[in-house]
UniProtKB/TrEMBL annotation:
An example molecular function term from Gene Ontology annotations: acyl-CoA dehydrogenase activity
Acyl-CoA oxidase/dehydrogenase middle domain ranges (all copies): 135-228
Residue ranges of every copy of the Acyl-CoA dehydrogenase/oxidase C-terminal domain listed in the record: 243-387
Superkingdom classification of source: Bacteria
Keyword terms: FAD, Flavoprotein, Oxidoreductase
PANTHER family registered for this protein in UniProt: ACYL-COA DEHYDROGENASE (PTHR43188:SF1), ACYL-COENZYME A OXIDASE (PTHR43188)
Biological source species: Arthrobacter nitrophenolicus
Protein's name in the database: Acyl-CoA dehydrogenase
Acyl-CoA dehydrogenase/oxidase N-terminal domain sequence ranges: 29-128
Keyword RNA-binding: no
UniProt family annotation: Belongs to the acyl-CoA dehydrogenase family.
Family annotation (Pfam families): Acyl-CoA_dh_1, Acyl-CoA_dh_M, Acyl-CoA_dh_N
Cofactor(s) needed by this chain: FAD
Length: 394
Protein backbone atom coordinates (compact mmCIF):
# COMPACT_ATOMS: atom_id res chain seq x y z
CA UNK A 1 0.00 0.00 0.00
CA UNK A 2 1.36 3.43 -0.94
CA UNK A 3 0.79 6.30 1.53
CA UNK A 4 -1.94 8.68 0.45
CA UNK A 5 -1.50 12.44 0.11
CA UNK A 6 -2.55 14.32 3.22
CA UNK A 7 -3.52 17.97 3.47
CA UNK A 8 -2.17 18.59 -0.03
CA UNK A 9 1.37 17.54 0.85
CA UNK A 10 2.97 14.66 -1.09
CA UNK A 11 4.18 11.64 0.86
CA UNK A 12 7.74 10.32 0.79
CA UNK A 13 7.19 6.82 -0.63
CA UNK A 14 10.93 6.03 -0.70
CA UNK A 15 11.53 7.59 2.74
CA UNK A 16 14.66 9.40 1.51
CA UNK A 17 13.95 12.66 3.31
CA UNK A 18 17.57 13.80 3.04
CA UNK A 19 17.83 13.08 -0.73
CA UNK A 20 20.91 10.88 -0.57
CA UNK A 21 20.14 9.25 -3.92
CA UNK A 22 20.50 12.64 -5.59
CA UNK A 23 24.23 12.49 -4.78
CA UNK A 24 24.64 9.80 -7.43
CA UNK A 25 25.46 10.80 -11.00
CA UNK A 26 22.52 10.52 -13.40
CA UNK A 27 23.45 7.11 -14.86
CA UNK A 28 23.91 5.50 -11.46
CA UNK A 29 20.73 7.15 -10.20
CA UNK A 30 18.77 5.56 -13.05
CA UNK A 31 20.36 2.18 -12.44
CA UNK A 32 19.64 2.49 -8.72
CA UNK A 33 15.95 3.11 -9.45
CA UNK A 34 15.72 0.06 -11.73
CA UNK A 35 17.38 -2.26 -9.25
CA UNK A 36 15.40 -0.91 -6.31
CA UNK A 37 12.16 -1.56 -8.20
CA UNK A 38 13.25 -5.14 -8.93
CA UNK A 39 14.24 -5.76 -5.31
CA UNK A 40 11.01 -4.41 -3.91
CA UNK A 41 8.77 -6.07 -6.49
CA UNK A 42 10.46 -9.49 -6.70
CA UNK A 43 12.87 -10.13 -3.83
CA UNK A 44 11.17 -8.59 -0.82
CA UNK A 45 7.79 -10.36 -1.15
CA UNK A 46 9.37 -13.72 -1.98
CA UNK A 47 11.92 -13.60 0.85
CA UNK A 48 9.48 -13.95 3.76
CA UNK A 49 8.49 -17.51 2.93
CA UNK A 50 12.10 -18.57 2.35
CA UNK A 51 13.09 -16.95 5.66
CA UNK A 52 10.38 -18.77 7.59
CA UNK A 53 11.41 -22.09 6.00
CA UNK A 54 15.18 -21.46 6.27
CA UNK A 55 15.51 -22.14 2.55
CA UNK A 56 17.79 -20.51 -0.01
CA UNK A 57 16.05 -18.91 -3.05
CA UNK A 58 18.23 -20.25 -5.85
CA UNK A 59 15.71 -19.00 -8.40
CA UNK A 60 16.44 -15.38 -7.49
CA UNK A 61 20.18 -15.57 -8.16
CA UNK A 62 19.97 -15.30 -11.94
CA UNK A 63 17.63 -12.32 -11.72
CA UNK A 64 20.08 -10.69 -9.32
CA UNK A 65 22.91 -11.44 -11.74
CA UNK A 66 20.87 -9.91 -14.55
CA UNK A 67 20.86 -6.65 -12.63
CA UNK A 68 24.64 -6.82 -12.16
CA UNK A 69 24.56 -7.57 -8.43
CA UNK A 70 27.21 -10.27 -8.77
CA UNK A 71 29.72 -7.88 -10.33
CA UNK A 72 29.47 -4.74 -8.19
CA UNK A 73 33.10 -5.07 -7.16
CA UNK A 74 34.39 -5.01 -10.73
CA UNK A 75 31.96 -2.90 -12.77
CA UNK A 76 33.44 0.50 -11.91
CA UNK A 77 30.54 1.58 -9.70
CA UNK A 78 31.19 4.34 -7.20
CA UNK A 79 31.55 3.49 -3.51
CA UNK A 80 28.30 5.34 -2.86
CA UNK A 81 26.40 3.34 -5.48
CA UNK A 82 27.74 0.04 -4.16
CA UNK A 83 26.82 1.03 -0.63
CA UNK A 84 23.31 2.03 -1.62
CA UNK A 85 22.93 -1.29 -3.42
CA UNK A 86 23.84 -3.16 -0.23
CA UNK A 87 21.35 -1.00 1.66
CA UNK A 88 18.59 -1.66 -0.86
CA UNK A 89 19.38 -5.37 -0.85
CA UNK A 90 19.06 -5.37 2.95
CA UNK A 91 15.84 -3.39 2.61
CA UNK A 92 14.51 -6.30 0.53
CA UNK A 93 16.24 -9.11 2.46
CA UNK A 94 19.24 -9.05 4.80
CA UNK A 95 20.41 -12.59 3.98
CA UNK A 96 20.67 -11.82 0.27
CA UNK A 97 22.41 -8.56 1.10
CA UNK A 98 24.90 -10.55 3.16
CA UNK A 99 25.39 -12.99 0.31
CA UNK A 100 25.98 -10.17 -2.21
CA UNK A 101 28.25 -8.28 0.16
CA UNK A 102 30.47 -11.23 1.07
CA UNK A 103 30.45 -12.33 -2.56
CA UNK A 104 31.60 -8.95 -3.86
CA UNK A 105 33.75 -7.56 -1.07
CA UNK A 106 35.50 -10.74 0.05
CA UNK A 107 35.27 -13.44 -2.62
CA UNK A 108 35.33 -11.52 -5.92
CA UNK A 109 37.41 -8.75 -4.36
CA UNK A 110 40.09 -11.05 -3.01
CA UNK A 111 40.39 -13.21 -6.11
CA UNK A 112 40.54 -10.09 -8.28
CA UNK A 113 43.12 -8.31 -6.14
CA UNK A 114 45.09 -11.17 -4.64
CA UNK A 115 44.58 -14.11 -6.99
CA UNK A 116 46.75 -15.42 -9.81
CA UNK A 117 45.83 -14.88 -13.44
CA UNK A 118 44.82 -18.53 -13.65
CA UNK A 119 42.56 -18.17 -10.59
CA UNK A 120 40.96 -15.05 -12.01
CA UNK A 121 40.22 -16.64 -15.38
CA UNK A 122 38.89 -19.80 -13.73
CA UNK A 123 36.57 -18.23 -11.17
CA UNK A 124 35.63 -14.61 -11.92
CA UNK A 125 33.34 -15.23 -14.93
CA UNK A 126 31.15 -17.64 -12.99
CA UNK A 127 31.22 -15.60 -9.82
CA UNK A 128 30.19 -12.34 -11.43
CA UNK A 129 27.30 -14.12 -13.14
CA UNK A 130 26.22 -15.88 -9.92
CA UNK A 131 26.54 -19.24 -11.68
CA UNK A 132 29.21 -20.13 -9.12
CA UNK A 133 29.49 -19.19 -5.46
CA UNK A 134 32.33 -18.92 -3.01
CA UNK A 135 32.32 -19.06 0.79
CA UNK A 136 34.62 -17.04 3.04
CA UNK A 137 35.96 -19.47 5.65
CA UNK A 138 37.79 -17.58 8.40
CA UNK A 139 35.89 -17.92 11.71
CA UNK A 140 36.47 -21.09 13.75
CA UNK A 141 34.49 -22.85 16.50
CA UNK A 142 36.89 -21.55 19.16
CA UNK A 143 37.96 -18.28 17.56
CA UNK A 144 35.96 -15.28 16.37
CA UNK A 145 37.15 -11.92 17.63
CA UNK A 146 40.67 -13.27 18.23
CA UNK A 147 40.91 -15.14 14.95
CA UNK A 148 44.04 -13.37 13.69
CA UNK A 149 45.97 -14.62 16.72
CA UNK A 150 44.18 -17.82 17.60
CA UNK A 151 43.51 -19.38 14.19
CA UNK A 152 44.10 -23.14 14.44
CA UNK A 153 43.35 -24.50 10.96
CA UNK A 154 46.67 -25.71 9.57
CA UNK A 155 48.25 -26.05 6.14
CA UNK A 156 51.41 -27.85 5.17
CA UNK A 157 53.09 -28.19 1.79
CA UNK A 158 53.69 -31.84 0.96
CA UNK A 159 54.72 -33.28 -2.39
CA UNK A 160 53.54 -30.28 -4.38
CA UNK A 161 50.18 -30.15 -2.62
CA UNK A 162 48.80 -28.28 0.35
CA UNK A 163 47.24 -30.43 3.06
CA UNK A 164 44.65 -28.65 5.22
CA UNK A 165 43.23 -29.69 8.58
CA UNK A 166 40.86 -27.86 10.90
CA UNK A 167 37.34 -26.58 11.41
CA UNK A 168 35.41 -23.45 10.50
CA UNK A 169 32.07 -22.16 11.83
CA UNK A 170 29.35 -19.73 10.75
CA UNK A 171 30.51 -19.88 7.14
CA UNK A 172 27.94 -18.19 4.93
CA UNK A 173 26.90 -20.22 1.85
CA UNK A 174 29.12 -23.01 3.12
CA UNK A 175 26.73 -25.77 2.03
CA UNK A 176 25.95 -24.34 -1.40
CA UNK A 177 29.30 -22.88 -2.50
CA UNK A 178 31.50 -24.26 -5.25
CA UNK A 179 34.61 -23.43 -3.26
CA UNK A 180 35.62 -22.02 0.08
CA UNK A 181 38.30 -19.41 0.56
CA UNK A 182 39.90 -21.06 3.57
CA UNK A 183 42.29 -19.29 5.90
CA UNK A 184 44.89 -21.59 7.45
CA UNK A 185 48.18 -21.25 9.28
CA UNK A 186 51.17 -22.48 7.29
CA UNK A 187 53.07 -24.82 9.59
CA UNK A 188 56.36 -23.84 7.93
CA UNK A 189 56.35 -20.11 8.69
CA UNK A 190 53.25 -19.70 10.95
CA UNK A 191 51.74 -17.16 8.55
CA UNK A 192 47.97 -17.19 7.94
CA UNK A 193 47.33 -17.72 4.23
CA UNK A 194 44.33 -17.93 1.92
CA UNK A 195 43.53 -21.07 -0.11
CA UNK A 196 40.87 -21.88 -2.69
CA UNK A 197 39.39 -25.20 -1.59
CA UNK A 198 36.82 -26.75 -3.93
CA UNK A 199 33.97 -28.09 -1.82
CA UNK A 200 33.94 -31.46 -3.57
CA UNK A 201 37.43 -32.42 -2.45
CA UNK A 202 37.82 -35.51 -0.24
CA UNK A 203 37.92 -34.59 3.43
CA UNK A 204 35.86 -31.40 3.02
CA UNK A 205 32.53 -31.52 4.88
CA UNK A 206 29.97 -28.74 5.30
CA UNK A 207 26.97 -29.08 7.63
CA UNK A 208 24.18 -26.50 7.68
CA UNK A 209 23.60 -24.64 10.94
CA UNK A 210 19.84 -24.71 11.55
CA UNK A 211 17.42 -23.01 13.96
CA UNK A 212 18.95 -19.52 13.77
CA UNK A 213 16.89 -16.53 14.92
CA UNK A 214 18.12 -14.41 12.02
CA UNK A 215 19.69 -14.56 8.56
CA UNK A 216 17.64 -17.72 8.12
CA UNK A 217 17.90 -17.60 4.32
CA UNK A 218 21.70 -17.56 4.43
CA UNK A 219 22.99 -21.12 4.59
CA UNK A 220 25.62 -20.86 7.33
CA UNK A 221 27.70 -23.96 7.89
CA UNK A 222 30.13 -25.79 10.10
CA UNK A 223 33.05 -26.93 7.96
CA UNK A 224 35.57 -29.63 8.75
CA UNK A 225 38.78 -30.23 6.81
CA UNK A 226 40.43 -33.61 7.29
CA UNK A 227 43.64 -33.99 5.29
CA UNK A 228 42.11 -32.04 2.41
CA UNK A 229 44.62 -31.95 -0.45
CA UNK A 230 44.67 -29.10 -2.96
CA UNK A 231 47.19 -28.16 -5.68
CA UNK A 232 49.97 -25.78 -4.72
CA UNK A 233 48.46 -23.32 -7.20
CA UNK A 234 45.31 -22.98 -5.06
CA UNK A 235 47.16 -20.65 -2.70
CA UNK A 236 46.20 -17.04 -3.38
CA UNK A 237 49.61 -15.52 -4.16
CA UNK A 238 48.62 -12.14 -2.77
CA UNK A 239 47.32 -13.67 0.46
CA UNK A 240 50.50 -15.30 1.71
CA UNK A 241 50.32 -13.08 4.82
CA UNK A 242 47.15 -12.15 6.72
CA UNK A 243 48.19 -8.50 6.84
CA UNK A 244 47.71 -8.33 3.07
CA UNK A 245 43.93 -8.70 3.39
CA UNK A 246 43.31 -6.10 6.11
CA UNK A 247 42.11 -3.48 3.63
CA UNK A 248 39.46 -5.79 2.21
CA UNK A 249 38.37 -6.85 5.71
CA UNK A 250 38.07 -3.18 6.68
CA UNK A 251 35.84 -2.50 3.69
CA UNK A 252 33.72 -5.56 4.46
CA UNK A 253 33.15 -4.18 7.95
CA UNK A 254 31.94 -0.95 6.42
CA UNK A 255 29.37 -2.64 4.18
CA UNK A 256 27.59 -3.98 7.27
CA UNK A 257 26.86 -0.34 8.05
CA UNK A 258 25.01 -0.12 4.74
CA UNK A 259 23.09 -3.25 5.66
CA UNK A 260 22.18 -1.70 8.99
CA UNK A 261 20.87 1.40 7.23
CA UNK A 262 18.89 -0.75 4.80
CA UNK A 263 17.23 -2.87 7.47
CA UNK A 264 16.05 0.28 9.21
CA UNK A 265 14.39 1.55 6.05
CA UNK A 266 12.79 -1.88 5.73
CA UNK A 267 11.44 -1.53 9.27
CA UNK A 268 10.06 1.89 8.32
CA UNK A 269 8.42 0.46 5.19
CA UNK A 270 6.74 -2.37 7.09
CA UNK A 271 5.68 -0.18 10.01
CA UNK A 272 4.32 2.65 7.88
CA UNK A 273 2.26 0.33 5.71
CA UNK A 274 0.91 -1.40 8.79
CA UNK A 275 -0.12 1.70 10.76
CA UNK A 276 -1.83 3.18 7.71
CA UNK A 277 -3.86 0.01 7.17
CA UNK A 278 -4.55 -0.99 10.76
CA UNK A 279 -7.51 0.69 12.50
CA UNK A 280 -8.10 0.96 16.24
CA UNK A 281 -10.70 3.05 18.06
CA UNK A 282 -12.25 3.87 14.70
CA UNK A 283 -9.19 5.47 13.09
CA UNK A 284 -5.88 4.43 11.47
CA UNK A 285 -3.04 3.76 13.89
CA UNK A 286 -1.06 6.30 11.87
CA UNK A 287 -3.28 9.05 13.30
CA UNK A 288 -2.13 8.54 16.91
CA UNK A 289 0.60 10.74 18.34
CA UNK A 290 2.66 7.97 19.93
CA UNK A 291 2.61 6.01 16.69
CA UNK A 292 3.80 9.00 14.67
CA UNK A 293 6.51 9.72 17.24
CA UNK A 294 7.91 6.17 17.00
CA UNK A 295 7.65 6.21 13.21
CA UNK A 296 9.59 9.48 13.14
CA UNK A 297 12.27 7.99 15.42
CA UNK A 298 12.58 4.95 13.14
CA UNK A 299 13.12 7.15 10.12
CA UNK A 300 15.46 9.44 12.05
CA UNK A 301 17.67 6.50 13.03
CA UNK A 302 17.65 5.19 9.47
CA UNK A 303 18.50 8.57 7.98
CA UNK A 304 21.29 9.20 10.51
CA UNK A 305 22.79 5.81 9.66
CA UNK A 306 22.52 6.53 5.94
CA UNK A 307 24.19 9.92 6.32
CA UNK A 308 27.07 8.34 8.26
CA UNK A 309 27.56 5.75 5.54
CA UNK A 310 27.61 8.43 2.83
CA UNK A 311 30.64 9.93 4.55
CA UNK A 312 32.23 6.47 4.79
CA UNK A 313 31.76 6.09 1.03
CA UNK A 314 33.47 9.44 0.47
CA UNK A 315 36.45 8.30 2.54
CA UNK A 316 36.57 5.05 0.55
CA UNK A 317 36.59 6.93 -2.75
CA UNK A 318 39.50 9.04 -1.48
CA UNK A 319 41.39 5.99 -0.19
CA UNK A 320 41.30 7.35 3.36
CA UNK A 321 39.03 4.91 5.18
CA UNK A 322 40.70 3.45 8.27
CA UNK A 323 39.66 0.48 10.41
CA UNK A 324 38.58 2.68 13.33
CA UNK A 325 36.24 4.62 11.04
CA UNK A 326 34.77 1.42 9.60
CA UNK A 327 34.40 0.02 13.11
CA UNK A 328 32.62 3.16 14.33
CA UNK A 329 30.25 3.06 11.38
CA UNK A 330 29.47 -0.62 11.89
CA UNK A 331 28.99 -0.30 15.66
CA UNK A 332 26.86 2.84 15.47
CA UNK A 333 24.56 1.80 12.66
CA UNK A 334 23.93 -1.68 14.06
CA UNK A 335 23.20 -0.23 17.51
CA UNK A 336 20.67 2.10 15.94
CA UNK A 337 19.26 -0.76 13.87
CA UNK A 338 18.62 -2.78 17.00
CA UNK A 339 16.66 0.10 18.53
CA UNK A 340 14.82 0.74 15.27
CA UNK A 341 13.52 -2.79 14.78
CA UNK A 342 12.44 -2.88 18.42
CA UNK A 343 10.29 0.21 17.79
CA UNK A 344 9.03 -1.37 14.59
CA UNK A 345 8.02 -4.51 16.44
CA UNK A 346 6.19 -2.36 19.00
CA UNK A 347 4.29 -0.52 16.27
CA UNK A 348 2.92 -3.83 15.00
CA UNK A 349 1.77 -4.87 18.46
CA UNK A 350 1.13 -8.59 18.77
CA UNK A 351 1.51 -9.05 15.03
CA UNK A 352 5.10 -7.89 15.39
CA UNK A 353 6.11 -11.27 16.77
CA UNK A 354 4.55 -13.23 13.90
CA UNK A 355 6.68 -14.43 11.02
CA UNK A 356 3.80 -13.59 8.68
CA UNK A 357 4.13 -9.82 8.91
CA UNK A 358 7.81 -9.17 8.12
CA UNK A 359 8.84 -7.25 11.23
CA UNK A 360 9.82 -10.36 13.18
CA UNK A 361 12.14 -11.24 10.28
CA UNK A 362 13.82 -7.84 10.56
CA UNK A 363 13.94 -8.12 14.35
CA UNK A 364 15.89 -11.38 14.12
CA UNK A 365 18.14 -10.27 11.27
CA UNK A 366 19.17 -7.11 13.14
CA UNK A 367 20.71 -9.27 15.88
CA UNK A 368 23.00 -10.87 13.33
CA UNK A 369 24.14 -7.51 11.98
CA UNK A 370 24.91 -6.46 15.55
CA UNK A 371 27.13 -9.52 15.99
CA UNK A 372 28.92 -10.48 12.78
CA UNK A 373 31.88 -8.82 11.02
CA UNK A 374 33.19 -7.96 14.48
CA UNK A 375 30.72 -7.81 17.37
CA UNK A 376 29.39 -4.46 18.56
CA UNK A 377 31.65 -4.62 21.60
CA UNK A 378 34.83 -5.38 19.65
CA UNK A 379 34.15 -2.61 17.15
CA UNK A 380 33.50 -0.18 20.00
CA UNK A 381 36.83 -1.11 21.54
CA UNK A 382 38.60 -0.54 18.22
CA UNK A 383 37.21 2.99 18.24
CA UNK A 384 38.20 3.41 21.89
CA UNK A 385 41.76 2.33 21.11
CA UNK A 386 41.94 4.77 18.21
CA UNK A 387 40.87 7.78 20.27
CA UNK A 388 42.83 6.99 23.46
CA UNK A 389 45.90 5.18 22.20
CA UNK A 390 45.24 2.45 24.81
CA UNK A 391 44.09 -1.03 23.89
CA UNK A 392 41.38 -2.48 26.15
CA UNK A 393 42.00 -5.98 24.79
CA UNK A 394 45.16 -7.87 24.00
Amino acid sequence: MQPQEHNGRPPFPDADLIHVVELLPAAERQRYARIREFLQASVRPASLGYWNREEFPFGLLQDMAGHGLGALQLDGSSALFKGLMYAELARADVSLSALAGIHNELIVGMISQLGSEEQKSRWLPGLTGFTELGAFALTEPGHGSDISRGLETSARLEGGEWVLNGAKRWIGAGTIADFALVWARDQADQEIKGFIVETGRPGFTATRIANKIGLRIMQNADITLEDVRIPAGNLLPGAARFASVQGLLRDSRAWVGWQAAGIQFAAFDVARDYVLERHQFGRPLAGFQLVQQQLADVLGNASASLALMVQVARLQEEGRLEMAQAAMAKATTTRLARATVAMGRSLLGGNGISGDYGMAKLFGDAEILYTYEGSYEINSLLVGRAVTGISAFT
